[in-house]
Amino acid sequence: MTPEMTPEMLAEMLAELDRLRDIRLPDPVGWWPLAPGWWALGALICIATLAAWLLEARRRRGLRHLSLRELAGLRDRLHNDASHEDIGATLAVLLRRVALGAHRKSIATLSGEAWARELTTGKAALSPEVASYLADAPSAAIRHSDDIRPMLARALAEAERWIRGQS
Description:
Blueprint: H1 7-19, H2 36-79, H3 84-101, H4 112-119, H5 128-136, H6 148-165
């Protein structure tokens, strides 16, 4: 205690000190709720992802739809006694276009037995006989016979299942 401080002054100072309160700091800023800019960015990303998915699905459905229409045309040509060799070659080319359109670029260089093996793999695989026939159809002269018509009909039926199975 200093000589000039009296007990009354000390009591008064202590009363004043009791009235003081600590400075309260604000709460730390949290990450939630997000600022409006983050909400807008999230919505933009969701919309862009949905649009890309819809466009890709439309493109794939479009390819499948066009391929199935072309396949129906081949089936009509078979029933109208068109050239059997031409139908087989066109069907083989159609299947290759569908495979390339389904992002299977590795098949571009396949031919013969390798292409036939590729056609017999997957969830909607062709039978080995049909796959072998289609692998040879564009490049080899198919023998003229009456029993090729059932093979073409079978190939068209299996090709439809195969096209529908492509993603």
